[in-house]
Amino acid sequence: MIADHNSFSIKIDGQSVLQQDLRTPAISQLASSIATLPIVRDWLLPVQQEVGKAGGVVAEGRDMGTRVFPEADIKFFLEADVNVRASRRQQELAEKGKPVELDVVRDEMVTRDARDRNRCIDPLQPSPQAILVETSHQSVEEVVGHMMGMIMERL
């Protein structure tokens, strides 16, 4: 992994990995499984925190506000009905030429959510300081607008 203030790239065995390659159902399931391993979590935490030291970081992940950046200036916890989330994910995958049945997407989400919520180390839960944002009936633009308004109020 290579990071600086202006760019961020991921390489595996010297080969660049594109963002779209990381956002597949198989990678999501694998990441969730690997995230339960204490040795992985303990190694990755200082790396993530080092990247964030310079500030100006927007991070997305299931434990960013509780474990990785507990002192973040502002935290959001996005929620949506699992059927809405599954439909959105199915559409995203279809647009990338990777069609998947809705039931498969939903089942994988339910499995991953349960694993992440029930893991012993840093289970998936909102930080007490997080602003909960229910997104089931909002567009991406509406969610971002709401979040930007909250940021402007607080910072």
Description:
The structure is a single chain. The protein has one domain: P-loop containing nucleotide triphosphate hydrolases (Rossmann fold, 3-Layer(aba) Sandwich). The protein is 52% helix and 12% strand. The protein has helices at residues 19-22, 25-34, 38-52, 64-68, 82-95, 102-118, 140-154, and strands at 2-3, 8-12, 15-17, 76-79, 131-134. Strands 1-2-3 form a three-stranded antiparallel beta sheet. Strands 4-5 form a two-stranded parallel sheet. The chain is globular and about 40 Å long. Mean pLDDT is 87; it is low at 1-5.
List the helices and strands and how they pair.
Elements: E1 2-3, E2 8-12, E3 15-17, H1 19-22, H2 25-34, H3 38-52, H4 64-68, E4 76-79, H5 82-95, H6 102-118, E5 131-134, H7 140-154
Parallel strand pairs: 4-5
Antiparallel strand pairs: 1-2, 2-3
Quick take:
The chain has helices spanning 19-22, 25-34, 38-52, 64-68, 82-95, 102-118, 140-154; strands at 2-3, 8-12, 15-17, 76-79, 131-134. It is mostly helical and 155 residues long.
